[in-house]
């Protein structure tokens, strides 16, 4: 069981043989001595050492490897199985070869365990975080207090990245201006005329000027002795 768990996290490849892989030699590539997924006690090794026809494996019993699927030149699937009879075999594991790299396909139990562990880990983290927001007061009881996370101070690396993002070359600025100019030519802006206003009526205010004539009384000149002469008496006309 430990061996199966360890092989799920490893891979194998031979850089010298990767460019020449095809459906005819993929089993020979998988049976390389340095491949940790290959079991040398299998029937394939017996057929190879005795130089027999590969079709004779159908008449043998025991462990064997067979090509299950081929999608040249990048994907091949090899199945490890235990043969009981020419028509009956039990699947033990599947291996997929992508770009010359060999991986072991996980079994259903490993997939379910991985998903359950991932789910439980996320749930545990959610409960731990929720517990930090719980508050208790003797009079009010339990309550929740959510606070915004404090913003981390930007490190020197973040500042450098920010500066790099903010900086722009002259070519970029000119390029943007050219693009904006082309867009303005293709789609000129529409200016709405201002609403017409009725002409304001000129109010003619007639100012009436009243001329007030003031008559100045004629001053009588004094005589030499300084006395004022009385006005002459009017004589009555005799008829």
UniProtKB/TrEMBL annotation:
Membership in a protein family: Belongs to the Mediator complex subunit 6 family.
Name of this protein: Mediator of RNA polymerase II transcription subunit 6
Subunit composition and interactions: Component of the Mediator complex.
GO cellular component: mediator complex
Record GO terms (molecular function): transcription coregulator activity
Compositionally biased region (Basic and acidic residues): 147-167, 203-222
Record's function text: Component of the Mediator complex, a coactivator involved in the regulated transcription of nearly all RNA polymerase II-dependent genes. Mediator functions as a bridge to convey information from gene-specific regulatory proteins to the basal RNA polymerase II transcription machinery. Mediator is recruited to promoters by direct interactions with regulatory proteins and serves as a scaffold for the assembly of a functional preinitiation complex with RNA polymerase II and the general transcription factors.
Localization, UniProt: Nucleus
Keywords on record: Activator, Nucleus, Transcription, Transcription regulation
Provenance organism: Elysia crispata (lettuce slug)
Alphabetical list of Gene3D superfamilies matching this protein: Mediator complex, subunit Med6
Region (Disordered): 147-168, 185-239
Superkingdom of origin organism: Eukaryota
């Amino acid at each position: 069981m430990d061996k199966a768990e360890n092989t799920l996290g490893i891979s194998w490849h031979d850089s010298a043989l990767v460019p020449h892989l095809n459906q005819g030699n993929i089993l020979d590539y998988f049976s390389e001595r340095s491949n940790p997924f290959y079991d040398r006690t299998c029937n394939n090794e017996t057929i190879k050492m005795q130089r027999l026809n590969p079709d004779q494996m159908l008449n043998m019993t025991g462990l064997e490897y067979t090509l299950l699927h081929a999608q040249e030149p990048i994907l091949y699937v090899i199945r490890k199985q235990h043969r009981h009879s020419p028509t009956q075999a039990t699947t033990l594991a599947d291996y997929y070869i992508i770009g010359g790299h060999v991986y072991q396909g996980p079994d259903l139990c490993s997939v379910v365990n991985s998903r359950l562990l991932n789910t439980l880990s996320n749930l545990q983290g959610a409960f731990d975080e929720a517990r930090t927001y719980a508050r208790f007061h003797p009079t009010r009881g339990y309550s929740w207090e959510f606070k915004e996370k404090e913003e981390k101070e930007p490190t020197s690396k973040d500042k450098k990245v920010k500066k790099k993002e903010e900086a722009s070359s002259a070519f970029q600025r000119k390029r943007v201006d050219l693009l904006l100019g082309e867009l303005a030519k293709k789609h000129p802006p529409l200016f709405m005329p201002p609403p017409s206003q009725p002409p304001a009526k000129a109010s003619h205010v007639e100012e009436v000027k009243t001329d007030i004539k003031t008559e100045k009384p004629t001053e009588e000149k004094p005589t030499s002795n300084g006395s004022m002469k009385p006005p002459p008496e009017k004589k009555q006309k005799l008829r």
